[in-house]
Amino acid sequence: MRSLLSQALHETYSATGQQLEQAGRRLRLCQHSLGALWHQARQARQGAEELRGAVQGLKVEELALQLQTHGGTQALQGAQAGLLLLAERLTELERTLASLARRGPRHGAVELAALKMHVEQQSLALRALAGSTQHQQQRAARQAQQLARLQEQQLQHRTRT
Predict the structure, then answer these.
(1) Is 161 helix (H, G, I), strand (E, B) or coil?
(2) Domains in the chain: how many in total?
(3) pLDDT 10s digits, 21-43
(4) Residue 147, CA distances (Å) to 113, 141, 150 in order
């Protein structure tokens, strides 16, 4: 009887040992999986922080471009108003010049020469201002395109998070 009891205890002891070894393997496997999950979570947090930083950078850049575009638009409007005023003055000077020319060479030859020179100066200024206005319009269009690209990038970053 004793040997039967001894054998049963030995089998129970062996089975318990095997179960403990299997539980230990499972525990190590779970610990390894948990470590991998912690690593992935840390990487995901870092990625989210980098993404937040990129979005913040895009917001700052977008704001700067909006301010620059707004300033450019105001300057462009001012230049266009100046262009219109200059064009009106040039038209008025041309009328005065035509009126003096109709009176003949004896009346106001000095005034006529001075007026012609003034008209030429105003005409040059008008052309320069028109060129500057065109340049500002092109610049404003480029800035608007760049702003649209930044807004699109920002939207894409938002949809990823």
Answers:
(1) coil
(2) 1
(3) 999 999 999 999 999 999 999 99
(4) 51, 10, 5
Digit-coded pLDDT (tens) for 56-98: 887 888 787 777 777 777 877 887 887 788 788 878 877 877 7
What is the domain range of residue 135? 2-160
Alpha helices by DSSP H, the chain: 2-103, 109-160
Six-digit token string for 7: 């054998």
pTM higher than 0.85 for the full model? no
Burial class (CB in 10 A: 0-12, 13-18, 19+), 9: exposed
Q: Which two tokens stand for residue 105?
A: 């060479």
Whether residue 76 contacts residue 140, with contact meaning beta carbons closer than 8 Å, is answered with yes
